[in-house]
Amino acid sequence: MQQLRPYTPEIEEIRQIFYQSLSEKERRRYAAIEALKIGYGGISYIERLFGTNCRTIKRGIEELKSPESMNQRRIRAKGGGRKRKLDTIKGLEPAFLRVNEQFENINRLIDDYQKTGNRVMSIDTKKKKS
Asked: What's the CA gap between 99 and 9, in Å, rounded?
């Protein structure tokens, strides 16, 4: 069975380049418009062409039909996207503060040691060969 191919390879390449330049929301809607334009088999063709999921295209179609979603300025819903690591990893902030306290303590010890006239050598310093 032959796959649907309404565009030439050159036009497909131009559409792919354009698709990659769009934001997430614009990609969804552009893929939806292209799929609707083609008609029967359009969703699976656009899915292959752009490497997107059919659910993404269907969501774009729903957005195009909804005047409410067409007027939204945001790309993602409020609160969408990746959460901060401090919010998702329990105990990260106290652990970070303990490590930071250790570095501050080391720096204080170095300062005290240097004030007594002693030199401090870094761990990564290598002894020169004579």
From this structure: 56
Numbers of helices and strands, H then E, in the chain = 7, 0
More confident of the two residues 76 and 116: 116
pLDDT, tens digit, for every residue of 86-129?
788 888 888 888 888 888 888 898 888 889 988 887 776 566 66
- CA distances to 26, 59, 66, 93 from 70, in Å: 11, 12, 6, 40
| CB within 8 Å of 50: residues ≥ 6 apart | 15, 16, 19, 27, 31
CA nearest 12: which of 40, 65, 3? Answer: 3
Q: Which residues contact 33 (CB under 8 A, 6 or more apart)?
A: 60, 64
Q: Cα separation of 29 and 70, whole Å? A: 10
pTM of the model: 0.56
**How far is 75 from 110, CA to CA, in rounded Å?**
50
